[in-house]
Amino acid sequence: MDFSDVVRTTGAVRRFRADPVPDAVLARVFDNARFAPSGGNRQGWHVVLARSEPVRRALRELSFEGWTEYAAYVAADRVPFAPDDDGRWRRPPSDVDFSTPAPRNRFVEELERAPVIAVLAVDLRQLAVTDADLPRQSIVGGGSVYPFAQNILLSARNEDLGGVMTTFLCRREAQVKELLGLPRPYAVAAMLALGYPEHHPRRLTRRPVPDFVTFDHFEGEGLAGLPESR
Ligand SMILES: Cc1cc2nc3c(=O)[nH]c(=O)nc-3n(C[C@H](O)[C@H](O)[C@H](O)COP(=O)(O)O)c2cc1C
């Protein structure tokens, strides 16, 4: 595929056809994705592909628990798990009620039927976390694993697959680590569902360039976007 078509149509896909994804296709996806950057080129990632029914079921159940917590924030009109204005994460606000039953989430309910379920783990000892001691939520460490996750999604799109990265499982990291036998220094970064989509997204909703690229100052003049860009 043309590069621009790939990046502009790799949107979240949560509904898949039943067709299996051949291992040879998956191998190509990961073979391209592995060229992702990571701090110090440490490449601390590990992918566990969930194939067995009990493992898939457990991942669905744990994802549902994460979804329930996420939905509680949404119900309280809050950005789920967002740090405060000072950039620090604190306890959930008192108006977030985790006992509220979550609305249905068809993607999670049908997760076991996703042709590919890939849990992305990362060895924390391999992360160069240059902002670890700042008095705010650390963000740099994730930069050594999420480019790899996005590369998986882009490479999948190039194979006519679709998929989505989810982080619901991070809410139940201890159980996921036990389930998958992840060694102690590993963290759960994401779970990706992949498959041949019922529909590829055609047009993604994204902010235009002048909104987020400015000269000299945060409030500076925005870089002019391309007139033909939609
Ligand atoms: C760091 C990260 C975490 C995400 N976590 C979840 C998740 O837990 N569940 C989910 O359904 N989608 C998750 N997504 C997918 C986003 O919802 C999706 O990329 C975004 O809404 C854009 O959707 P679109 O490509 O359809 O426009 C996550 C995406 C990112 C980058």
UniProtKB/TrEMBL annotation:
Pfam family, one: Nitroreductase
Keywords of this entry: Flavoprotein, FMN, Oxidoreductase
SUPFAM superfamilies noted in UniProt: FMN-dependent nitroreductase-like
Residue ranges constituting the Nitroreductase domain according to the UniProt record: 12-196
Chain coiled-coil ranges: none
PANTHER family referenced in this protein's UniProt entry, alphabetically: IODOTYROSINE DEIODINASE 1, NADPH NITROREDUCTASE
Protein's name according to its UniProt entry: Nitroreductase family protein
Organism the protein comes from: Yinghuangia aomiensis
